[in-house]
Amino acid sequence: MMKKLWELYVSFFKIGILTFGGGLAMLPMLKREVVDKYKWTTEEEMLDIYAIGQCTPGIIAVNTATYIGFQQAGVLGGIIATLGEVTPSIIIILLIASALKEYMDTPVLLHAFAGIRVVVCALMLDTVVMMARKGIKDKIGVFLFLAAFLLATFSPIPTALVIVLAAVFGVIYARFRSKKGGDRS
Amino acid sequence: MIYLHLFYEFFKIGLFSVGGGMATIPFLLDLTTRYDWFTTGEFGNMVAISQSTPGPVGINMATYAGFQAAGISGSLLATLSLVLPALVIIMVIAKFMKNFSDNPIVKAAFDGIRPTVAALILYAVLELCKISLFTVTGTTYIPAYANIIICIVFFGLLQMKQLKRIHPLVWILAGAILGVVFKL
Fold first, then answer.
1. Are B30 and A70 in contact (CB under 8 A)?
2. pLDDT band at A23 (very low <50, low <70, confident <90, very high)
3. Got the DSSP string for A5-62?
4. Which ipTM was obtained for this model?
5. How far is CA B157 from the centre of its chain?
6. Which residues of B touch A144 (CB under 8 A)?
7. Chain B residue numbers touching A169 (CB-CB < 8 A)
């Protein structure tokens, strides 16, 4: 049992440190560790687990780690795999953040970060375009996109509530559409 | 007291951000309006660093935000609070609902969530653009033309198929160099 927990921690630590940016980029590394090396799961099941991670709350990479850890060694396994996945982030970010706190006032860094923020705007706009392309499939999608944008811009409704409303809307709309489809046939 | 707030806020973010690390961005931006943990400008730096270091972006950002708010203990608390809701939810699903992602209700809910999250992130990104591409004095925004041109050029470059595989870190380093050279 101890050996299994240790293996879970180490392999998700490795996956965490080698997945720059998370998301789909982690899949090759995930496959190498959990499918090829330890045979904890098959490639198909791994993709299913990844899909579950995508449509549940939280960070996808962490959700995948929790799922596989739990499958292998119960609640403790889930916790250990999750901790393994987040440990590299915590160490690296803490090192960078404390170093920057010390030197952030130097003019070179201030200019560098002003430039970085400009590029981050471009990078994030690019990500939003990609997400919108993938997520908006029909007129209803366009409507939800516009409605959510207007709500975020002009109303004090909390972000969490907007997301819950969108989920409820999606379910009700699907019901409504399947009923209409049923009548026609 | 700050620890209680950190726990509450990051637990909430973990519970409601569906669709990965980027989905936490609107929530993190919202924190800047309600707490003095970090400014919008610092938030921009956090996003940049989180995108260019190893590890899931969402975890990196939570760790960074927690550190800004309350040092090392704050970073640990923020990250653990962020993963706690999913930890419980995933274990329940793994035990009882293996076909969760094929469930028609889940699929329908997600069809509603996806365009919405994209819009919420767009809103947050535009807020970041406002402070990165304009000089803010009080309530007036004066366009910083060099910044705007650089942003448009980079966005254009990012749309080119041949450049899609370039890692964000490379773009971010290029931004740092331009920032120093042009004294942005």
1. no
2. low
3. HHHHHHHHHHHHHH-BT-GGGGHHHHIIIIIIIS-SS-HHHHHHHHHHHHTSBS-HHH
4. 0.85
5. 22
6. 112, 115-116, 119
7. 112
